Amino acid sequence: MEQYLALSQRIIDEGVWVGNERTGKRCLTVINADQVYDVKNNQFPIITTRKSFWKAAIAELLGYIRGYDNAADFRALGTKTWDANANENNAWLNNPARKGPDDMGRVYGVQGRHWRKHDGSELDQLAKIVANLSKGIDDRGEILTFYNPGEFELGCLRPCMHTHTFSLLGDTLYLTSYQRSCDVPLGLNFNQIQVFTLLALMAQITGNKPGLAYHKIVNAHMYEDQVALMRDVQLKREPFPSPQLEINPDIKSLKDLETWVTMDDFKVTGYQHHEAITYPFSV
Question: How far is residue 83 from each of residues 60, 73, 99, 167, 178, measured CA to CA in Å?
């Protein structure tokens, strides 16, 4: 929580205004922000200076793990985070690759589970990583990437959080996640929960202990219509202690995550928070 607030204050104090072509808005921007989450001691990095809808963040992560490409599937899990990008993004609505309502195209989890190879076959990046880590193997290339420049035009949005590298030291699993662009008031709240939970889940299903999760952000920003709310409201509030995340111990494999797991299998305990803040979302 302290890292989140420190980054928000840094953007307000040091940020430079940069125009954003996609949204037509200006962003107050800094370059290079690193955050570290202690998964080993279960210090769940959830925002406490406003209410966080953490279930939607984990539902989105679960949809990525399953390789979903349709906003309706994400809604069925419990999150509406892809509704706007799938159905209100004018460039995507006019893209001949779009299949119809709720279609997201070849973004995020589709690339992670169904990367197209040169011969037309598919590569399941995540399955390879799980198989290796379950055997105690780290080939220094346990990398899950959603970033495929050759297929950007086939999806509604380039991935923001684009690459996850897993590292195994003995029986302790570490994660380094890379993010090219981060809407700090809205997106980072989700992103840090997802980085933490991804490491916790991968350690659990591969039989390893979770260590630290390193979150590397390149372009960290606030949109011009978010700055006042962050500066004058959220940053004025005192944070509460970090809660803990409980994951159903019966989740033991990638197949479990693909088939029967729901949001009922996750619980956050000891979560105290201030009232919600409605930040504008830019499509």
Answer: 12, 10, 15, 34, 24
